[in-house]
Amino acid sequence: MGNAFTVMDCQGAPASSSLNFSAGVSTLTNQLVMNCVGTAVKVGNASVTIRNSIFFNNTGVLGGAVYLAPGASLTLASVVFLNNSAVQGSAVYVDK
């Protein structure tokens, strides 16, 4: 059997409910992140690795699933993006 997923379901949560990384080094593993409004994961001045995770049905303006700010670092490994939407970057938006 594989590792169990930790579910983050933003259904019914206030808009802009998300994971925010503004500094340091962080890793997300085995996550199912769904139904977030206002982008699911926001990476500021940080280094984030996301592994073995699924982003489903998230919405935002810049990045439905992930927003990457200037100077931030993001590593993705075995990540699936399904049915995410945004004005720009339905799965991932990389800001310059």
TrEMBL record:
<dbReference type="InterPro" id="IPR011050">
    <property type="entry name" value="Pectin_lyase_fold/virulence"/>
</dbReference>
<protein>
    <submittedName>
        <fullName>EF-hand domain-containing protein</fullName>
    </submittedName>
</protein>
